[in-house]
Design the sequence.
């Protein structure tokens, strides 16, 4: 069975949603991608939606929605996207913090940079899981 990975942040509207989308796109052979937050948002950040659509042809408005931590199944790996405030807690066999700044309200360049960083980190996480560098 493939491990379950949760990408979490406070609002589950931007970085964690991007990570869920890119995890599903690039690493679905290695792990199942989920995202959630402590507070629900009516919509995913529309700048994030537009950038992910432009770069990767994924429409997150159609494939994803804002979810709460309590809605997730039991997770094997938890990735905190980077919280300057209190980071949500979710029990897992492995937890790491990617420390990414929230691009909300910033330029498209910042969103593109964030998306590319998340793509790199998602692929790196998959490699570490495959190589048993992360004990699950």
Sequence:
């Amino acid at each position: 069975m493939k491990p379950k990975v949760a990408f979490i942040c406070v609002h589950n509207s931007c970085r964690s949603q991007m990570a869920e989308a890119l995890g599903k796109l690039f690493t679905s052979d290695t792990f199942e991608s989920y995202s959630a937050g402590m507070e629900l948002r009516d919509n995913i950040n529309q700048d994030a939606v537009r950038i992910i659509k432009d770069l990767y042809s994924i429409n997150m408005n159609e494939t994803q929605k804002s979810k709460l931590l309590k809605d997730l199944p039991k997770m094997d790996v938890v990735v905190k996207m980077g919280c300057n405030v209190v980071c949500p807690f979710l029990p897992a066999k492995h937890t790491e913090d990617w420390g990414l700044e929230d691009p909300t309200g910033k330029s498209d360049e910042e969103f593109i940079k964030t998306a590319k960083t998340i793509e790199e980190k998602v692929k790196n996480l998959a490699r570490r899981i495959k190589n048993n560098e992360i004990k699950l």
Q: What stands out?
A: The helical segments are 15-26, 46-56, 60-63, 108-130. The domain at 4-130 is CATH 3.40.50.2300 (Rossmann fold). The chain has one domain: 4-130.
